[in-house]
Write a structure and sequence with these properties.
Helices cover 34% and strands 12% of the residues. It is an alpha+beta fold and 186 residues long. The chain has 2 domains: 113 residues, Glutaredoxin (3-Layer(aba) Sandwich), CATH 3.40.30.10; 42 residues, no CATH class. The chain has a 5-stranded mixed sheet, covered by helices on one side. A hairpin with a 2-residue loop joins strand 3 and strand 4. Helix 7 runs antiparallel to helix 8. The chain is elongated and about 75 Å long.
């Protein structure tokens, strides 16, 4: 039975050696004849622990960090694939005080999934919002965005629904033509 190990692939983790750590884990597992699946996820946001290696166990993920490639043999010796004790063991990642206090909305899946795997994205309700929007009229989408209170990220935090309604209602001289808008153009 394969053990799933998560090693981040984002810029922060890569700059701290995550690629070398993932390679060392794969090589050490192969040398020991252990079947592992390495998932390259995004960082959980605790950069001081990067590269944060997580092992998926029946009771949740156990984290080890910050891990260097030179630490990998010692992690295997400490039986980290079963949550073994090691100086880099930070316990259940979901229970780390900094992380436990967070309620993630936009970034709810970051660190949990492989960000370049379509299968992983779909298995975690990816495209659910898009599929719903495709079943709605433009006016209904604008109404829902307006009612949601979503605001722009610029200094004015202008209501997104008002922006969208203004564009939808704008008719050029001579009738209806294709409209274009640009996001984040500044």
């Amino acid at each position: 039975m394969s053990v799933t190990i998560f090693v981040p692939r984002d810029a922060a983790a890569l700059s701290l050696g995550a690629e070398d750590v993932a390679r060392a884990i794969a090589e050490e597992a192969a040398a020991r004849g252990i079947d592992v699946t390495i998932v390259r996820n995004g960082t959980r946001g605790m950069v001081w622990l990067e590269p944060l290696v997580e092992v998926s166990l029946s009771h949740g993920r156990i984290g080890y960090g910050p891990v260097a490639a030179t630490d990998v043999r010692g992690l295997f010796d400490a039986d980290f694939l079963k949550g073994g004790k090691h100086p880099l063991n930070v316990g259940a990642v979901e229970e780390i005080p900094y992380f436990k206090k967070q309620e993630r909305l936009t970034f709810a899946r970051v660190g949990l999934t492989d960000p370049i795997s379509l299968e992983d994205y779909l298995a975690n309700d990816g495209y659910r919002g898009l599929m719903r929007a495709l079943s709605m009229s433009s006016a209904d989408i604008i109404k829902e965005v307006t009612e949601s209170g979503l605001r722009g990220r610029g200094g004015a935090a202008f209501p997104t629904g008002i922006k969208w309604k203004t564009v939808a209602d704008a008719l050029p001289d001579g009738g209806n033509v294709q409209k274009y808008f640009t996001c984040n153009a500044d």
